[in-house]
Write a structure and sequence with these properties.
Blueprint: E1 3-7, E2 9-10, E3 27-39, E4 45-54, E5 58-69, E6 74-81, E7 93-96, E8 104-115, E9 118-132, E10 137-150, E11 161-173, E12 179-188, E13 192-203, E14 208-215, E15 227-230, E16 238-249, E17 252-266, E18 271-284, E19 292-304, E20 310-319, E21 323-334, E22 339-346, E23 358-361, E24 369-380, E25 383-397, E26 402-415, E27 431-434, E28 443-446, E29 459-460
Parallel strand pairs: 1-20
Antiparallel strand pairs: 2-29, 3-10, 4-9, 5-8, 5-10, 6-7, 6-9, 11-18, 12-17, 13-16, 13-18, 14-15, 14-17, 19-26, 20-25, 21-24, 21-26, 22-23, 22-25, 27-28
Length: 463
Amino acid sequence: MRKLCYLFSLLCFLLGWNPAATAAKPEAWQLGINQTQIDLSGNPVVVGQIAATFAQPGTVIVTFDGTCISSPGDRIVLAASDQPDWSPNDGNTSVEAFDDDRNRNPFSHTRAYSVGAGSYDFYAVAQNYVETDGNGIASIYGSLSVKFFPDQVLAGEARPEAFFQGISQTNIDLEGSAVVVGEISFEAPQSGRVVVRFDGKCIASLGDRIVLAASDHAGWTPNDGNVGIEASSDDVNRKSFAHSRSYLIGPGNHTFYAVAQNYVETDGSGIASIYGGLTVEYYPDLAGIYAFSAQEAISETNIEVLGAPVTVASTQLNLPEAGTVLLRFDGEIISSPGDRIVAAAADTPDWSPNDGNVSMEAFSSDVNQNSFSHTRAYAVGPGLHSFYAVVENYVETNGSGIASVYGSFTVEFFPETTTATSELTDLSPSLKVFPNPTEGICTVRIGTPLTEPVKVEVINTDG
């Protein structure tokens, strides 16, 4: 396990005008969802709602993820939406319980919307749909998150951006080699970091393992990282999934992909249907005053998770100002039948399952992998903060207590202000500090000629 430490640089005592008066900034909101034994038969039910006001046009990324506990015989559809009167045809992910014991499934669904300046509402919705032989009752524990990326920040500044492609691929042949099911291209004005995420649902043939991945190249192979799903039966054959990757990029054109393949277990037809979304978020190196992202890859094989929470990833941030930190822990867990595995993003290593989690169970010793996603947000002040991805075998412990965890722990920080420090009030020249955060060496660039001396201080917040 590696620990990453990111430092912001502070800029002080400059001349000119106040950018905070004119610059919009990326923002994030998150709502925890705790709905127990609700009736989802009939019409869609709103289980979470976030109201947000935007100062200018931009792109909104909305994600609904968590765990759904349902009744055998019911198909539960779940969706992030901009409408309370959503219908399943607007896009969703779906889950099914196999029996009264193996009745919990992780899920993740993402949508993107172009918005103008003004106030908007976004929703997490659920419904018992098509397959209704159960009791229509379900419990949903998860998160609704909203991220806003404005169309413009300061004039001439690179800005964080978000791109999204909906994916609808029905009955495609995934045998043999990887199939690209979605792609996004964009022009990066400068170096930076991208977070690429592929989530949704896959309907597969019994006997097939379908691996799915977000990637930076069309020639991806399963060894480059993936999540896998398998049908539990001919009827219970739809599984939700989520896979994230992060890449450092240079300026220029870049393309990112959603890929899928029938891999290793190929006793089925090789045919699958995939419905979901590919999301790309771009954070320029020079835009640390607006938002930034960091990600740690997780690869933990056959670890003991019985007895107490196990930290599988941690990230430490030294923040110069207050803001919102959005955490997402996603990937796949391979576990033992008889064990309930809970996974969570948290702000403490002393996390307990009551602090919020997603949970999953292996169907059998063969169908034993689950893809998952758990999101949390925390309001933070300036200073040093640590965040964790944790896993535990909890409540149901009749298996071996051994699990393998493969995934990503993503941390995104959205400052309350649009400046690099609360003391920065005036900015006449175009001044940039990069990389920001830095790992030891940074560059100060002034784009406008100076007519008088200007004092610039670059301060390590550790002192």
